[in-house]
Every structure is written in structure tokens, then in C-alpha cells.
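Quick one: sequence plus nicotinamide-adenine-dinucleotide SMILES, need C-alpha cells.
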Amino acid sequence: MVDRKRFWKEKKVLVTGFEGFVGSHLTKALTGYGARVTGLDIKTLRKETILCPDDYKRIKVYQGSVASGAFVRGILRKHPPQVIFHLAAESIVGRSRENPLAAFTSNIAGSWEILDACRELPGLQALIVASSDKAYGAGKKLPYLETDPLLANHPYDVSKSCADLIAGTYAHTYGLPVTIIRCGNIYGPGDFNFSRLIPDALRCRVKGNILPVRSDGKYVRDYVYISDIIDGYLRAAELFKRKRLCGEAFNLSDQRPVTVIQLLQKINRLNLCTRPLKYKIMNTAKYEIRRQYLSAHKAGRVLGWRPVYDLEHGLKAAAQWYFNYFSSKS
Ligand SMILES: NC(=O)c1ccc[n+]([C@@H]2O[C@H](COP(=O)([O-])OP(=O)(O)OC[C@H]3O[C@@H](n4cnc5c(N)ncnc54)[C@H](O)[C@@H]3O)[C@@H](O)[C@H]2O)c1
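Reply:
Sure thing.
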């Protein structure tokens, strides 16, 4: 096990998408360990973020698109990083379907611009790329393994398969120190993407609204708590050299898949001083995969990664956070 504080102290790190859900948690963790973080995002200084003024004092902030090669190269020249976490993406499935060109530009072109610019960075030790369970598409065999083919069919999913394959090629062909992380559904405090099921369900439970369920309620997914995901990302960078992770991909999952209805029942069992959540099955979901979950066996074996939070504990922590957040707003 690497001494985390020692590893990150004074390390020069670039986080793309640093103001997003995962990026903001990762940025907070990295600055907490003493890393020198440069944060890049298309939208910065937004109202809804867990980053506070003190965090911003500790990071160098750049606003712009990862799909702009000149912008990316300029930042890398000015602040050559030792580690990069490439998280920036259009991360919402529905928005990607409505505007595929924007999703492909951010997710595919944005990834190749970062990857290609890194060929000019001799001091780069690790480049960790955020892929997704969606990159696998609708595989027949469950749980998905890292060796399964990437066979996506729809815009967001395809954008992640493409970026994942392109990242792999920069490792295999050009020897770039790339590792790919494929997560199931991440949840926890500070996710302001309310089109996602857990933030929306917790908001509805706190506010007493009826939750519209897009699917028939029987879709199966795995859910991983945010701090476990951050631990997985950090481990991939910390162990990159020792474990020779160049070109490797890792699934991160709690390996306890549930249906949407089972998840909502768990949310209703949480001891919150609000009325139980009511929901309405809309059954309008289109082009979404019915059953999807990952094996995290490889991450356990190679990275020593194991989720600390099970769904009950993670939901409890997330619910408490959303409860406080909405209470402070009303
Ligand atoms: N949250 C999940 O459940 C989940 C699961 C699997 C994979 N992922 C992947 O993890 C990464 C982070 O996800 P998240 O949940 O934090 O999403 P998010 O939407 O909260 O964060 C993504 C960030 O990227 C920024 N961004 C978008 N396009 C950009 C561009 N062209 N240039 C620069 N910045 C841009 C956004 O402004 C946002 O701050 C994404 O790559 C996503 O695809 C997320």
C-alpha cells in the first residue's frame, strides 16, 4: 500500500471536468493530500458545487473545452502535470441523445486532444481516463469483465466506447501511461445532476414530490458510493508504476446489482423525517440497456480496491446530505 499523503504531496495534477460531481470530490481529496491541482472545465465557478472558496484558492482554474487542442496544449505547457485525471465529458445519457454532436465532440474529440497533447509531456507518470460501464453496450454475459468487447450502440455509450478504445491505443501504440476506469452508477453528496435517478429520488423524497421513473422499474444496475470511486481513481495513479498498469482497464462496482424498484424501496426504508417517496412508472425509457452490472474482481486483485460503502450506508449518507442541502435552501 502506497503512503497516500506522501505520494500526492506537491504532486502536479491536472483534473479535467474538475467542477463536475466526480471531479469536485477528486479535487477536494487531492488538495487535501497536498497536491498542486490545475482544474479545467467548460463551466467554472458554478453555484452548485461542493468546492468552497478555500478550495478555489488552492487550485489553478481554467475555463474552456477539452475539445480545443490549442487550449489544452497551452495549459499543459504552462503547468506540465505528473498525473492527469481525464473526467471531462457530457455525462448525461439523455442530453447526449438530444445532441450527439456535442457529446461526441466533448467525449471523443476531447479525449483525443488530451491524449495526443500528452505525447509531448515527458514527465507524465499516469493518465487516468474516465470510461463507463456504458462503454460495453448491451453485452449478453453478466457481470461485464474488462476483457469483454466494447459494443455500444447509442450516443453516450458509443462516445465512451470510442474514448476508451482511443485511450487504449495511446497506451499500446505510443506507450502513454494510460489506465482506464469503467464505473457503474456513482452516487453520493454533491451530485447536482438531477436527471440521474438517485439525486432525483432523494430530492423528491425530501421535497415530497412524485418521482417519475423513466423505465418500467425493472432495469438492473450497480451503484457505487463516491468516496469509493475516488479511492479507486487514486489507487490507479498511485500503483501505476509498481503494478505496470499501462493500457489496463478496471471496472469499479459494488457487485450488488438492484432493480430501480428495489433501489427506491431502499430509499424509502431510510430513516428521514419526511414522508415516504412516491413514484410513477412512466415506462418511456428508450435505447437504455435493461440489465447491466460489472465485475470488480480485477480492481480487487490488482489495486486492492474494495468498496467500503454498501448501498444502505451510502444511501443514508447521501440522503442526509441532500436533506441538509435542501433544508438550507428553503
Ligand atoms: N456519475 C456516474 O455515474 C458515472 C458513471 C460512469 C462514468 N462516469 C464518467 O465519469 C466522468 C465524470 O462524471 P460526473 O458524474 O462527474 O459528470 P459531471 O457531468 O458531473 O461532470 C463532468 C464535467 O465535465 C465538464 N465538461 C463537459 N464537457 C466538457 C468539455 N468539452 N470540456 C471541459 N469540460 C467539460 C462538465 O462541465 C462537468 O463539470 C465522466 O467522464 C463520466 O462519463 C460517470
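The pocket of nicotinamide-adenine-dinucleotide is lined by residues 16-17, 19-23, 41-43, 65-67, 87-91, 106, 110, 130, 132, 183, 185-186, 193 (CB under 6 Å). The chain has one domain: 4-188+224-255+291-308.
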